[in-house]
Amino acid sequence: MNITVLGSTGSIGTQTLDCAENLGLNVVAMSAGKNYDLFEMQIRKFKPKAVAMSDKQAAEKLKERIRDLPVSVFSGEEGILRLFEETQCDICVNGIVGVAGLRPTVAAAKKGVRIALANKENLVVAGDAIKKICKENGAEIIPVDSEHSAIFQCLNGICPTENDIGSIQSKIRRLILTASGGAFYGKTTADLHNVTASDALLHPTWKMGSKITVDCATLMNKGFEIIEAAKLFDVSSEKIDVVIHRESIIHSMIEFVDSSVLAQMSLPDMRIAIQYALTFPKRAESPVIPLDFTSLPPLTFAKPDYETFRAPLLCRQVLRTGGSCGAVLNASNEIAVEAFLQNRINFLHITDFVEKMLDKYPVVSEATIDELLETDKKIRLEERPD
Ligand SMILES: NC(=O)c1ccc[n+]([C@@H]2O[C@H](COP(=O)([O-])OP(=O)(O)OC[C@H]3O[C@@H](n4cnc5c(N)ncnc54)[C@H](OP(=O)(O)O)[C@@H]3O)[C@@H](O)[C@H]2O)c1
């Protein structure tokens, strides 16, 4: 089995390479952003045929370093797309952060391969368009996000041979996404005025990249996941609930019309979701430590505080409105999170800025991917959160 790993130097990417090694998969192509030190080590270990770095200077440095290896090195956004021309893969794992992952997802979809999708921003910005391209080209998306993998696994449990989710939707009352609550769970708006980026990066249960960790703290991540679930499983916003579950043992649940609930559980370790996206419909041994139920802490559940953390409400509104709203939501969130990480704005301003941008930009319905990326670019060029 040949796989392409996009974003191989990140949290998802490094764990994907662990899984690939464990499963004995052949890594044919990899991409990274700037981290050429780690990328070089990965290339020497996994021996892909072609690699790309989005940062052109980093790509030049990498080329110098790996002149002794028979590997093609490409650079820039176009360079990542070249990987799909130069190599053939069966599965593409997309662990790139942000909208930068969108064109690579489209390129993979056009090749008709399995896309193990971690990059939720893709579905927030262009979920409908991506699904259409996948359908036209016979590509499939298998979720890597732990909540969506959990739902996908629960669905598989009740319907092992059925690929079409539509036929089982009538049996589902709601999808229940669990949320750790992020670094600031329990805090009031007054408490949040002076929190710093380092405070926000202290996630209670998962170790992830900085952008998604801040998204967890604002609950924007959970809002994105509501959109992601709606797109992946064809359900409306009203059928998706969120419950705070601090321990991150239950990764999400399905409630059926008869009030029966299926949950997927494990220690919080992304390698289960990543590996399942690689092996589906089969399962394989993994290095993840099994649950010891008798030594677990009590599993707790609570309602999210949407007065303090409004982001999921904005995301539900975006889901209902559709069109270019997802591109506005994502672009404004990406630049606001970056400004917060650079200590240019305060934490509460992230959600305020996103809301302001959603009010400001008119909705374009039925937007193409190019139009959505134009909207993204315009916001990055013209708007400043500070
Ligand atoms: N981490 C998790 O547990 C987790 C769980 C669920 C979903 N996700 C989703 O998975 C995606 C990746 O998250 P992560 O936590 O793995 O992030 P991360 O640790 O920050 O890694 C991001 C990866 O993307 C690369 N990258 C950054 N900017 C890029 C650009 N402009 N073009 C191409 N590549 C670029 C980075 O390269 P360099 O490091 O070389 O610069 C790195 O390889 C996100 O969409 C996130 O929401 C993550």
Notes on the structure:
By secondary structure, the protein is of the alpha/beta class. Among the domains are: 2-143, 3-Layer(aba) Sandwich (Rossmann fold), CATH 3.40.50.720; 165-267 and 298-321, no CATH class. 47% of the residues lie in helices and 15% in strands. It is built from 16 helices and 11 strands. It has helices spanning 11-23, 36-46, 56-65, 76-86, 102-110, 120-137, 146-158, 189-192, 197-200, 210-218, 220-233, 270-279, 311-321, 325-341, 347-360, 369-382; strands at residues 2-6, 26-32, 50-53, 72-75, 91-94, 114-117, 140-143, 172-179, 240-244, 250-256, 261-265. A 7-stranded parallel beta sheet has the order 4-3-2-1-5-6-7, with helices on both faces. The chain has a 4-stranded mixed beta sheet with strand order 9-8-10-11, covered by helices on one side. The structure holds NADP nicotinamide-adenine-dinucleotide phosphate.
